Amino acid sequence: MNALPVSADPAAPLALVCPECRAPLQSTAGGGLRCSACGADFPARAAVPVLLSESAWRECRAHLDAEAAARDAYARARRAAPLTLRYFDWWVGRMLDEIPPAFGGAFVELMCGGAEVCRRLPARFTAALALDLDVDMVEQAARDLAGDGRIAFVCGTAARVPLPDACTSVVVVQGALHHARPVLAEVLAEIHRILKPGGVLVGSEPANDHPLTRAIREWEYRRSTLHGNDPEEEGFDRAELGALLGGAGLRLDRYRQFGFIAYPLMGNTDLVPLLRATRSRALGTALLALDQLLERLPGIRGLAWASLFRAFK
Questions:
Q1: Is the torsion defined by CA of 235, 275, 86, 296 positive or negative?
Q2: In terms of residue numbers, what domain contains 246?
Q3: Contact, 233 vs 296, CB < 8 A?
């Protein structure tokens, strides 16, 4: 598990700063971090840096413990189901294809969960940060990727990213902005702040472009023991997403809808366990091909479960 550099040296890639005042952080004798300016203290609480106040840390830990069963089911599906692993290879690959080829160097995955994008990080990115409030998932990703010295892992909030201004050309968020609706304005403002001029945000979110898709998703979330009746579990349509990004100074450049049959059967085996144990590559290939065919049909495209988008600063 790699700790990000905390030196004030401007040449250091992705040096951590205080999430409260953005001043440099210093290591403490107890293994934690302390702000050199405002005095904010971040003691060692886990195997990765935890850049949260004490009250925020307690609230976060209580929330994670209360949802332990759902989180365990989600994590098992992402790591153990063969078709899910293949679907995420395909899904993340499409996201990475949205990054202009000339962009390299620093890479930031916000609200990373299990760091699915950083798990597949292209070689042209030489330093990466994976950040999420779920310290357990971040710790697991850090253990799994301990051999990749480019990637550092931090428990923290995307509403106060512990990075300097204009430090990266690439930010990715996979399926998490809709979870952050109560603080979405702050999250998008932070993405704008840390992006260099001309930098890109690549994201993927649940698509709400069709009334039928919205109705089915709302029904599933009401009945699901994994989601519960959570009002925050609501996707975006193109118009809403474009307006939200635009309000933060990010220009929506591309918006694509995807995900029909393979999306629930391969990508969400925690919710639809029908193929959870299936190892057939031929079946996976057929389902992905079918979804890509449906994407090209104008009358069907609007029924997609998900969107893939990119926006430039």
A1: negative
A2: 25-312
A3: no
What are the C-alpha distances in Å from 248 to residues 129, 182, 202?
22, 15, 15
Domain membership of residue 15 (yes or no) is no
Provide the domain count of the chain: 1
Q: Show the tokens assigned to 255.
A: 């918006």
The span from the CA of 7 to the CA of 206, in Å, is: 39
Say what the pLDDT of residue 13 is. 61
Residue 13 contacts residue 127 (beta carbons within 8 Å): yes
Q: Please say if the pLDDT value at position 86 is more than 90.
A: yes
- By DSSP bridging, strand 25-27 and strand 33-35 are antiparallel
Q: Are 36 and 25 in contact (CB under 8 A)?
A: yes
Would you say residue 1 lies in a domain?
Answer: no
Mean pLDDT, residues 16-44: 96
Closest CA to 312 of 226, 224, 248: 248
Which of these, 134, 90, 93, lies nearest to 113 by C-alpha position?
134
* 282 located within any domain: yes
